[in-house]
Design goal:
The protein is mainly beta. Helices cover 0% and strands 77% of the residues.
Length: 179
């Protein structure tokens, strides 16, 4: 089974300043037997008064192998670019264990614990490689086949520099607009 989704956004504002922001995300999931493979990508750009204020993109490939109905192994390979965050490229490789806490016809709750290796190609300063611990949770509610609510959160703790940590959260609602 394959489940492609695409999300786009465009926001233009006026007033004291003129801003334009756009984003595009795409996701494709393929399932077969005990394997789930997903490919996620996105791009985001923002300008204020004609000057660029944000420009980033990402591509992630995730594989899950279910050893039991609830317990699985996962790996994620990713690349990100965000010059306003100070790096041209951030490469990451993650792996660990996942546990499906809840699975019904409409709901799924999963948790993951693992390790992350990241290599940043930074702008104007020395490149940096670091090892982190990763904790992740996700929840998906299917209202029906075409309307889906999802939420996820990542927390990554840098083992070398304890004051460095990263987190990411996403809340989204997907709806089919027309047949």
């Amino acid at each position: 089974h394959s489940f492609p989704t695409r999300r786009s956004s465009d926001l233009t504002t006026g007033g004291n300043s003129r801003s334009q922001t756009y984003g595009l995300k795409a996701n494709s999931i393929k399932t077969k037997d005990k394997f789930i493979v997903s490919l996620n990508s996105g791009i985001f750009n923002s300008k204020t008064n004609g000057s660029e204020t944000a420009n980033n993109w990402f591509v992630n490939l995730k594989e899950e192998f279910f050893m039991t109905e609830k317990l699985y192994l996962y790996d994620i390979l990713g690349v990100t670019s965000d010059k306003y965050a100070g790096f041209n490229y951030r490469y990451s490789a993650q792996g660990g264990f996942g546990y499906r806490l809840l699975k019904t016809d409409k709901d799924e709750l999963k948790s993951e614990l693992g390790i992350d290796f990241t290599s940043e190609k930074r702008i104007g300063v020395e490149n940096k490689d670091f090892l982190s611990g990763r904790y992740y949770m996700s929840y998906v509610h299917n209202y029906n086949k075409t309307n889906i609510l999802s939420a996820s959160a990542d927390y990554l703790y840098d083992f070398n520099e304890s004051e460095n940590w990263r987190s990411n959260g996403e809340l989204s609602f997907s709806a089919k607009l027309k047949d």
